Amino acid sequence: xxxxxFQPWHLVLVLVVCLLVFGSKRLPDMARSLGRSMRIxxxxxxxxxxxxxP
Length: 54
Hints:
Largest sheet: none
Shape: flat
Strand content: under 5%
Structural class: mainly alpha
Distance between the termini: 44 Å
Number of helices: 2
Number of strands: 0
Order of helices and strands: HH
Helix content: over 70%
């Protein structure tokens, strides 16, 4: 049912809409903050896994 639901042009469309909504000046800042958040989340998950193992 959803085998062909996501195609490459969908990604292009999402990127264009984001560029129109947020503008070209805010997108790098948003990507940077998203990267920081992902790193923090990853390190916290790793810390929780190491706490659980004896």
